[in-house]
C-alpha cells in the first residue's frame, strides 16, 4: 500500500482531478485544494473535460459502464505530471482499479497504468511530495478526523492528514472511538440498504461528536456528505469540513483574491 | 430436537430483517460489545504488523498452492484415508450428503448421533434430515447446543450463540432442560450443558464431526476445538463420521501449522486452542479406544463452481476463522440471522451464491460498503471486496461469452438499475454533455427533490452547490484578467 514516491525535484506542474462530487457538491473544497497547491508555487492544470472516475458503476458491478467513463478520463493527462485528487476513494479507483478495468486491452491498460502511477491523494501529495511546512494562524481549536476506508485501506494515506494537522500548533486532534470503522456511505449502498447505512452513519456521527471536538475533518467528499447529511437531519449543529478547506483557512490562505479569509 | 430448515433469502427479506435488527437498540449494543471484544482479542495476538503480514502471505501461499493441486490432492487424500481404514464418500449436494450419512446410520440401527461443531453439517441441514428420519442428532458444542435448544440456527460460524445474552440462555435452560432452575451463573449454566451431554456421549451410536484441515500426504483429519466435545464425538461412539467441504485439503502436515496458528489467533484471539485432534483412522488392533468404523463425507455443494473460475476460486482459500464477520461494520449492525444463510457476513456474501445460487442470494454481495475491513484481517488474504464487486456484476449481467454462467446468473438484474448505469455512462463519458448537465444542476438546484429514495430516510437531501468548481475557476480567470 505504501508507495515509492517519485525521486527528483519538486514538480512545477500538476493536474487536478476534482471528482464529480467536489465539482458539484463541495466546489469550495476543490478551490481550497487548488490554492493550497498554488501557494507552494505549483501551476495547477484543470482539464476541462474531466467528469467522474467511474466508481459508482464499478462498485455496483457495471464494469462496462465504468470502463466507458474511465476511458473518457484516460487522455486528459498527457504530460507526465502528477495528478492530484482531493478524495481518497476516487484516487483509489484510479490508482488501483483502472489497471484492472483495462486488463484486457493492452493499449488502454498501458495508459491506465501510467496514469495510476501518477495519481496522488491531496494530503499524500502535500506531505510526501511537496514536504509542506506550515505555520498555524488560527485560534486554538479541537478537531477530530474521519479517514475514509479508501484512504486507509487502498491508498495508505490515513496517517497523512494527521501529520499535516500536527504541524498546526493551535489544532488539537481528538481521537474518536472505532476510528477505523466505515461511515456507512458505500456509494450506491447508501440507497440500496438505507437502514444499515443510516445506522452506520448515525454511529459514526455519534463517535465524532462524542470526542467533544469543535468540528470533524475528512478528506473524502462522500463521507462528508453522508455524515453531515445525517447530522443536519438530526438538527445537530456539529459539522464536518473538508480537510483542504480547514488547512487553507488555518494557514492563512494566500492573501490573494480568492482566499477564504478574504471572501468571508 | 429440530432446527428450522434454511430460510430462503430474497432481497426484500434481507432488507426487512436487517432493518428490524437495526431498529433494536438492545441487539445493536449487544452485537457491538461482542464484536469489540473479539476484535480486541485478535489484535492482542498480532502486535507486530510486519510479522502478521509475513504470516498471512505464507498462509495465502499454502492455500493457493493446495487449491492449485486440488484434484490430485483429493485423490491422494482418498487413497491414504482408505489405506488407514477410513471409508470415503463424495456428495455433490446436501441431499446426497444427508443420504450417505443416513445410510451409515441405518446400517448401525442408530438412534442417537452426537455432533461436534460442523458448519458443513449446518450447510447441508443434517439435523433436519436426521430429525425427519427419526434419529436424534444432538449438538455437543455449547454454543451449538444452545442454538439447537432454542430451535434456531447459528448466527456466527465460530460463536454460534453470540446473539444470545446470559439471560436468554438462563431462561432457555430453565424452560427446556428438565429439572434446571433459572440461574445467570455462567459456570453453572455450562455445567448444566455438560451434565446433559456427558451421558449422551456414552449412549450415542454415531459421533459426527467437522474437519478443519485434511492432510493428503498422511490421510489425517485435523480438528480444532476448545471444549473437548470434538474429541469425545470422535473417540467414544463406535462410528465416527466426519463431514467437510472438498476445499479443506492441504498436501502436507507441515502446511497445517501456519494455518492453525492464524486460525485460532484470528478467530478467538487464542495462540492455541485447548484441543487439537489429528485423526488418522479408526481404532487399530490392540488399541483400547477410538471408533471401530470411520467415514469421511466430502461435500461439493457449489464449490466446484467457484473453483472453475480463477478469481472466484480465491473464495475457497477460506479457513473459516470468522474474523471477517467480527470486523464487518454491516455484520456488527445486523448480526448473522439477517443474512438467512449458513455462513453470514463477508465470507457468506462471497460463498453463499455458489451454494444457493444467485437467484436466492443476489442481494448479499451488495450488502457491503466495500470498506475493506474484511480483506484487511483475512488471514489467507482473500480479496473479499474484489469478489463482492465481481459477484455484483455476475448477479446483474448475463455470463460473458466463453464463460459458463453461474447458477442464478443475472438474477438480480433490474431494468431500473441497467438504465440508470447506462445513463450514467452516457452522461459521464461525454464531457460536453456533462458540462451542460453541471451547468443546469447548479442553476436549477432549487428543483432538487427533497425525497431522494433511501438517502433522505436518515439524511437531508443532496443539493448541488450554487456554482460548480468549474464555474468558480472560470470566474477566477475573469477576475485575474480584470485585475491585470
Ligand atoms: S474469509 Fe478470511 S476472514 Fe473470513 S472466515 Fe474465511 S479465512 Fe476468516
Description of the structure:
Chain A is an alpha/beta fold. Chain A folds into 2 domains: 13-129; 141-250, Rossmann fold. Residues 255-264 of chain A have low confidence and may be disordered. Helix content of chain A is 49%, strand content 11%. In chain B, the strands form 2 sheets. Chain B has a 6-stranded parallel beta sheet with strand order 1-10-7-4-2-3, sandwiched between helices. A 4-stranded mixed beta sheet of chain B has the order 8-5-6-9, with helices on both faces. In chain B, strand 5 and strand 6 form a beta hairpin. In chain B, helix 16 runs parallel beside helix 19. Chains A and B meet through helix 1, helix 2, helix 3, helix 4 and helix 8 of A and helix 1, helix 15, helix 18, helix 19 and helix 20 of B. Iron/sulfur cluster (SF4) binds next to helix 14 and helix 16 of chain B.
Which key phrases capture this entry?
heterodimer; A: 264 residues; alpha/beta; Rossmann fold; 2 domains; 4-stranded parallel β-sheet; 8 strands; 49% helix; 11% strand; globular; B: 484 residues; 6-stranded parallel β-sheet; 4-stranded mixed β-sheet; 10 strands; elongated; disordered N terminus; binds iron/sulfur cluster; 4Fe4S_Fe-S-bd (chain B)
Amino acid at each position: 500500500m505504501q508507495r515509492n514516491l517519485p525521486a527528483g525535484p519538486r514538480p512545477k506542474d500538476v493536474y487536478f482531478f476534482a471528482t464529480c462530487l467536489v465539482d458539484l457538491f463541495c466546489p469550495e473544497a476543490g478551490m481550497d485544494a487548488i490554492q493550497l497547491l498554488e501557494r507552494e508555487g505549483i501551476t495547477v492544470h484543470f482539464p476541462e473535460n474531466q467528469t467522474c472516475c467511474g466508481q459508482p458503476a464499478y462498485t455496483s458491478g457495471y464494469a462496462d459502464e465504468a470502463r466507458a467513463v474511465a476511458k473518457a478520463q484516460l487522455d486528459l493527462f498527457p504530460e507526465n505530471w502528477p495528478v492530484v485528487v482531493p478524495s481518497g476513494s476516487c484516487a483509489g479507483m484510479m490508482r488501483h482499479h483502472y489497471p484492472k478495468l483495462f486488463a484486457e486491452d493492452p493499449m488502454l491498460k498501458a495508459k491506465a497504468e501510467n496514469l495510476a502511477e501518477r495519481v496522488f491523494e491531496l494530503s499524500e501529495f502535500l506531505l510526501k511530495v511537496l514536504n509542506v511546512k506550515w505555520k498555524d494562524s488560527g485560534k486554538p481549536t479541537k478537531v477530530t478526523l474521519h479517514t475514509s476506508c479508501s484512504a486507509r485501506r487502498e491508498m495508505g494515506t490515513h496517517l497523512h492528514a494527521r501529520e499535516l494537522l500536527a504541524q498546526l500548533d493551535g489544532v488539537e486532534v481528538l481521537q474518536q472511538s472505532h476510528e477505523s470503522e466505515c461511515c456507512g456511505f458505500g456509494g450506491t449502498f447508501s440507497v440500496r440498504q438505507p437502514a444499515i447505512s443510516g445506522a452506520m452513519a448515525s454511529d459514526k456521527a455519534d463517535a465524532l461528536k462524542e470526542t467533544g471536538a469543535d468540528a470533524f475533518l475528512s478528506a473524502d467528499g462522500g463521507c462528508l456528505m453522508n455524515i453531515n447529511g445525517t447530522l443536519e437531519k438530526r438538527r445537530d449543529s456539529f459539522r464536518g469540513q473538508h480537510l483542504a478547506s480547514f488547512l487553507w483557512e488555518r494557514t492563512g490562505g494566500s492573501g490573494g483574491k480568492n482566499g477564504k479569509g478574504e471572501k468571508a | 430436537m429440530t432446527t428450522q430448515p434454511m430460510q430462503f433469502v430474497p432481497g426484500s427479506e434481507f432488507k426487512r430483517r436487517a432493518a428490524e435488527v437495526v431498529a433494536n437498540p438492545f441487539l445493536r449494543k449487544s452485537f457491538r460489545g461482542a464484536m469489540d471484544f473479539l476484535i480486541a482479542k485478535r489484535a492482542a495476538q498480532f502486535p507486530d504488523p510486519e510479522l502478521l503480514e509475513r504470516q498471512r502471505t505464507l498462509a495465502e501461499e499454502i492455500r493457493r498452492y493446495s487449491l492449485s493441486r486440488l484434484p490430485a490432492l483429493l485423490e491422494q487424500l482418498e487413497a491414504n484415508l482408505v489405506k488407514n481404514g477410513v471409508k470415503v464418500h463424495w456428495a455433490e449436494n446436501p441431499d446426497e450428503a444427508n443420504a450417505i450419512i443416513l445410510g451409515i446410520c441405518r446400517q448401525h440401527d442408530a438412534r442417537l448421533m452426537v455432533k461436534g461443531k460442523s458448519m458443513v453439517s449446518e450447510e447441508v441441514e443434517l439435523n433436519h434430515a436426521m430429525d425427519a428420519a427419526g434419529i436424534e442428532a444432538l449438538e455437543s458444542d455449547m454454543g451449538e447446543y444452545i442454538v439447537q435448544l432454542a430451535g434456531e440456527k447459528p448466527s456466527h460460524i465460530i460463536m454460534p450463540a453470540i446473539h444470545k445474552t446470559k439471560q436468554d440462555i438462563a431462561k432457555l435452560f430453565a424452560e427446556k432442560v428438565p429439572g434446571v432452575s433459572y440461574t445467570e451463573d455462567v459456570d453453572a449454566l455450562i455445567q448444566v450443558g455438560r451434565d446433559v451431554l456427558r451421558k449422551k456421549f456414552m449412549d450415542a451410536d454415531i459421533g459426527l464431526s467437522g474437519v478443519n484441515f485434511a492432510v493428503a500426504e498422511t490421510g489425517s483429519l485435523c480438528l480444532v476445538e476448545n471444549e473437548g466435545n470434538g474429541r469425545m464425538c470422535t473417540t467414544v461412539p463406535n462410528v465416527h463420521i466426519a463431514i467437510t467441504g472438498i476445499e479443506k485439503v492441504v498436501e502436507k502436515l507441515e502446511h497445517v501449522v501456519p494455518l492453525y496458528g492464524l486460525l485460532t489467533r484470528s478467530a478467538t484471539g487464542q495462540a492455541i486452542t485447548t484441543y487439537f485432534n489429528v485423526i488418522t483412522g479408526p481404532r487399530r488392533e490392540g488399541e483400547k479406544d477410538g471408533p471401530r468404523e470411520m467415514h469421511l463425507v466430502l461435500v461439493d455443494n457449489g464449490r466446484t463452481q467457484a473453483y472453475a473460475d480463477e478469481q472466484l476460486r480465491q473464495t475457497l482459500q477460506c479457513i473459516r476463522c470468522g474474523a471477517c464477520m467480527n470486523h464487518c461494520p454491516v455484520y456488527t449492525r445486523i448480526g448473522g440471522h439477517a443474512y438467512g444463510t449458513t455462513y453470514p457476513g463477508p465470507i457468506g456474501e462471497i460463498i453463499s451464491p455458489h451454494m444457493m445460487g444467485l437467484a436466492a442470494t443476489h442481494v448479499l454481495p451488495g450488502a457491503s460498503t466495500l470498506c475493506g475491513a474484511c480483506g484487511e484481517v483475512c488471514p489467507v488474504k482473500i480479496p473479499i471486496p474484489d469478489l463482492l464487486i465481481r459477484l455484483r456484476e455476475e448477479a446483474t449481467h448475463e455470463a460473458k461469452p466463453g464463460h459458463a454462467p453461474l447458477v442464478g446468473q443475472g438474477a438480480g438484474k433490474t431494468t431500473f438499475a441497467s438504465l440508470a448505469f447506462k445513463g450514467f455512462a452516457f452522461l459521464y463519458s461525454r464531457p460536453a454533455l456533462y458540462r451542460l448537465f453541471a451547468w443546469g444542476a447548479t442553476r436549477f438546484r432549487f428543483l432538487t427533490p427533497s425525497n431522494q429514495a433511501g438517502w433522505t430516510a436518515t439524511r437531508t437531501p443532496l443539493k448541488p452547490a450554487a456554482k460548480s468548481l468549474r464555474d468558480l475557476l472560470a470566474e477566477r480567470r475573469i477576475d485575474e484578467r480584470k485585475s491585470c
